[in-house]
Design brief:
Elements lengths: L8 H4 L17 H20 L7 H31 L4 H21 L20 H46 L3 H28 L3 H30 L4 H26 L14 H14 L9 H19 L6 H30 L3 H39 L4 H12 L2 H27 L4 H30 L4 H32 L32 H26 L7 H20 L8 H26 L7 H23 L5 H38 L27 H4 L2 H9 L8
Helix pairs in contact: 2-3, 2-5, 2-23, 3-4, 3-5, 3-23, 4-5, 5-6, 5-8, 6-7, 7-8, 7-15, 7-16, 8-15, 9-10, 9-12, 10-11, 11-12, 12-14, 12-16, 13-14, 13-15, 13-16, 14-15, 15-16, 17-18, 17-21, 18-19, 18-21, 19-20, 19-21, 20-21
Length: 763
């Protein structure tokens, strides 16, 4: 992770002009990073213009307008920052200092760019951007640093909200553990349900905002645990209340509470970027990542024969070969795969010996023949490592495919349910042994898949799956034992059902994970990550039945399959269009890629696959998709300020179309639907409206790309920033919604005052 607040490509571009922000600050979220980009663009434009030899009156006026626009934007930005300070006393002092610095820097930039009325802007009598180059760089650096401080401080409020929400959940969990009556339990669990939904909403937004993909994956894993455990906690607690003297019921309940606490703790570790007792996170090394690093070092010898020692290279290979023992020592690896892995390991050692021999000779005498021999040795070494990678991938994925196919009938789970209801303790004991064997197989499968997952997020997903099987297996066993002891207990039967569903769900997720791993290996779109947040709070979330998810049945999936396929084709079209852009960091491209990713997850939902498991997940995804579309429309408005006047009407018309369609989708996603038929109609409408937005997006992307190229090819000139709306600041001070004020005076408010600044080109 970057240690500079200007770590994104957009922000780091300022370094060429001598700009830089406080190195002690670290930006961890996209919202803060993206908010800084337009400001850096404006300032960079000013810095780049100071060295131009010819300056027309038009240029001077444009520079002055930009300077004034920056100052005005900073003034409004600071007003919001000061409002945040007043709302949050613990940040008031730091925030106030940062706001004062930002205001002062903005005023300095305005003074230095006050050149339009001067006949000779280089005149010594008036200090300007042209005469005081150091001054403008210093003011720009101070401005960036102070604005970044304000944003990072505002981001702390979001972290504080998540911590506060977690503390509420923990406090209510403690009450649930101690409760002794059903009536009291139902009352407290209703409160707990509301708190969990709010926590899910906050952490879902945070997950989407994180820059670090590894942290995103860890957050997704923790939130998945909390989502599944909420229902487990309900049935396990009810079973314990119904059978207070049953030891297996108590063990079952304690396991759920323990797992939820661990997941809550991990969320806070990710959000605060800290670990208990200051210990550092030890990431397990996979064979894939080891081979990738080893090959990079070997290929680096072409450029530099002296940048590492032969001992380092030998150690790296030893570590990789030690990890292959996870495959060769596994009882589940086929004899054929084991033999091939051992042969390739032996060959890798021989190839390294040959490489080192030629390498050492080349260091002493750099002849043409020796360099050719070195090239051959490098190619042979890399080819051997590729074959080893292919072999372990084949071993892991073929084992996974066989196991998942073998366990799809869930025969052991079905037998446990039947024998539990019969009260047959001996038969339950027999099938729990079989489940334990199945658990060991699946855990081993996850360990091997982790080695070949190909990306850190997928590695983390494998680790999460391994933990889930490790924990859920014993929980199913304790739930089955409880049912066998109380065969007539409806709640004990329901409890076993919930844990079995969690097991089945994880097996289903493994099929998707296996497909993603194969996609990454084959260079397909398997690395495409999907944003998923749990359902937002609703009017009826106090009702426990509202927590029960709704899924489409096979008939409904068949009806919606055609629409889903159309959506899939559109995501491919959008991906193709975004790949044509030279600047992959462009805001329009970023929003387009995000929308394509979300639309793809909705397509997977129509097939009964992917991370969107229920209709509620789909509706929430549709809301997020519509929000992303609205952000794209804002980016189109910003682009319209850069293009020529004759191109502007078409672009604005398309932007308005997009806003209208996104509003319709948002309204559909938020509308209530009671009953199966109404829910399916709502699903159909959401997919249809998403398809319509994606169709428009397919037209918009090439249009924008064309206009940008046209704009770059033309003469182009600076344009002033759009006028600021005075009522923006007042939006957060509605006295009727005091509980939302902290959220309103957060990153989003600050973002509004910076992102509306025009992206200006230096011509």
């Amino acid at each position: 992770m970057a240690t500079s607040p200007c770590s994104s490509s957009g922000v780091s571009s300022s370094s060429s002009s001598g700009l830089g922000a406080d190195a002690g600050l670290e930006i961890r979220t996209r919202s803060v990073e993206q908010t800084l980009v337009p400001l850096v663009s404006q300032i960079t434009t000013l810095i780049n213009h100071k060295d131009k030899p010819k300056r027309s009156n038009k240029t001077l006026q444009a520079i002055q307008r930009v300077g004034q626009a920056v100052n005005l934007a900073v003034g409004r930005f600071v007003t919001v920052g000061e409002a945040i300070a007043n709302e949050n006393h613990e940040l008031k002092e730091e925030m106030s200092v940062a706001c004062i610095e930002a205001r002062r820097a903005g005023e300095t930039i305005a003074q230095l760019t006050d050149v339009a009325s001067l006949d000779h802007p280089e005149s010594d009598s008036h200090i300007t951007i042209f005469t005081d180059k150091t001054g403008v760089v210093k003011a720009a650096r101070l401005l960036l640093s102070s604005v970044t401080k304000v944003l990072v401080l505002a981001d702390r409020i979001v972290i504080k909200q998540i911590i506060t929400s977690r503390n509420k959940v923990l406090a209510t969990m403690e009450q649930l553990e101690k409760v002794s009556s059903f009536q009291e339990f139902v009352q407290i669990f209703s409160q707990f349900g509301n708190e969990m939904v709010e926590f899910a909403h906050l952490t879902g937004d945070r997950q989407n905002d994180l820059k670090d993909e590894k942290k995103k994956a860890r957050m997704a894993a923790s939130r998945a645990v909390l989502e599944k455990c909420t229902m487990m906690l309900l049935t396990a607690s009810k079973t314990c209340l119904r059978h207070p003297d049953c030891e297996s019921a108590r063990i079952n309940k304690d396991g759920v509470f323990h797992r939820m606490r661990l997941a809550l703790e991990q969320v806070i570790e990710i959000v605060t970027d800290s670990r208990p007792n200051g210990e550092s996170e030890m990431a397990p090394i996979s064979i894939y990542s080891g081979i990738k690093e080893f090959k990079n070092k070997v290929e680096g010898l072409r450029e530099n024969l002296y940048f590492l020692s032969k001992e380092n290279l030998s150690t790296m290979l030893e570590v990789i070969l030690e990890h292959t023992e996870d495959f060769t020592d596994s009882a589940y690896t086929s004899h054929e795969h084991r033999e091939h892995i051992l042969e390739l390991s032996k060959q890798a050692k021989m190839e390294l010996e040959q490489l080192v021999s030629v390498w050492m000779q080349a260091q002493n005498q750099k002849t043409k023949d020796l360099m050719e021999d070195l090239e051959v040795a490098i190619l042979k070494m890399c080819q051997c490592m590729n074959e080893l990678k292919r072999e372990v991938h084949s071993a892991a994925t073929s084992l996974a495919a066989d196991l998942l196919k073998y366990h799809t009938d869930h025969m052991v789970l079905k037998a446990l349910k039947i024998t539990g209801v019969e009260g047959n303790l001996e038969a339950v004991a027999e099938y729990t042994c079989k489940l334990s064997e199945q658990k060991e197989q699946l855990v081993e499968m996850c360990r091997l898949l982790r080695h070949v997952s190909g990306t850190e997020p997928l590695e983390i997903t494998c680790i999460h799956a391994e933990d889930t099987f490790q924990v859920t297996g014993p929980q199913i066993i304790s739930a089955a034992e409880t049912l066998a002891l109380h065969p007539s207990s409806k709640i004990a039967k329901e409890n076993l059902e919930v844990f079995c569903e969690a097991w089945e769900s994880q097996l289903s997720d493994m099929s998707l994970l296996l497909r993603e791993i194969n996609d990454v290996f084959e260079g397909r779109r398997g690395e495409k990550r999907v944003y998923l947040s749990l359902p937002r709070p609703g009017k009826h979330n106090a009702n426990l039945k509202a927590l029960k998810p709704v899924k489409l049945d096979s008939e409904e999936q068949a009806k919606i399959a055609k629409l889903g396929l159309e959506l899939h084709l559109l995501t491919s079209d959008v991906d193709s269009e975004t790949e044509k852009w030279e600047d992959q960091e462009n805001e329009i491209v970023q929003h387009g890629q995000g929308m394509s990713s979300m639309a793809y997850s909705m397509y997977l939902f129509t097939r009964g696959e992917g991370l969107l498991k229920t209709t509620q997940d789909l509706f929430h995804q549709a809301e997020i998709f519509a929000t992303e579309g609205t952000k794209l429309a804002s980016a189109l408005h910003a682009l319209s300020d850069q293009v020529r006047d004759d191109d502007k009407p078409l672009l604005l018309l398309e932007a308005e179309k997009l806003i209208s369609m996104c509003k319709q989708l948002q309204a559909t996603a938020k509308a209530s639907a009671q009953g199966k038929s109404a829910t399916f109609t709502k699903v159909d409408a959401c997919i249809l409206k998403t398809r319509n937005v994606m169709t428009l997006l397919c037209q918009l992307l090439p249009l924008c790309c064309k206009l940008l190229r046209k704009n770059k090819a033309g003469n182009g000139c600076l344009k002033p920033a759009p006028p600021w709306k005075e009522d923006r600041i007042r939006t957060g001070t509605n006295s009727r919604t005091p509980e939302r004020r902290v959220e309103t005076f957060g990153i989003k408010s600050l973002e509004n005052h910076v992102t509306n600044m025009t992206f200006l080109e230096s011509k």
